[in-house]
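At this stage, I needed to go through a protein sequence along with its fold in token form, as given directly below:
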Amino acid sequence: MKAVPRIGLDGLYIEDVIQDDSFTGVVPIYAQPEPEEAPDLPEDREIEDEADVSEEPEQPREIIGYLVGITLPNGLYHPRFDLVTWNAYQGAVLEAQSDYADELHDWREQWAEGEEQGPEPVYTPPAQPDNLWIEGLTPEEIAELTKPGELSEIEMLKKENMLLKAQNNAITERADFIEDIIAEMAMQIYK
């Protein structure tokens, strides 16, 4: 089992969800359908002909987010998965698969017709983009988050306590210095 990021429709990270280790790719999360209420029927009445019951076509389910099987990098303040880049990548994968299927079909037809064939085609998928996870905050929002904020009451009291201790030490040292001067003066006078 592994933690997989869950994102909203805007691509912003919401939370981690536990999934199987083999989970990969991007999978939509659908809204739970509202339970349909059964019509109230009198107890003594039987349903005579069920064929008359018309079935409504199933409504498409609403996508409310996605599970992303691509590792979330460290260092992002508010991670956002780039769904546009992912969808473009998926389009490129489908196109590469279609091209491969066409090439393989042509190669097999040449074999069936007894024509000279080259080497068997090899599927080469496009490289997955590296920048699928991006920062969801603007530089201004990050600066606002990282600027030093106001100190808590405890931190303010700790700073004040350190300042008072330093002042107390300075006063004590000054008093000791003055006592030493007075003692020296007294020794000079009473000699």
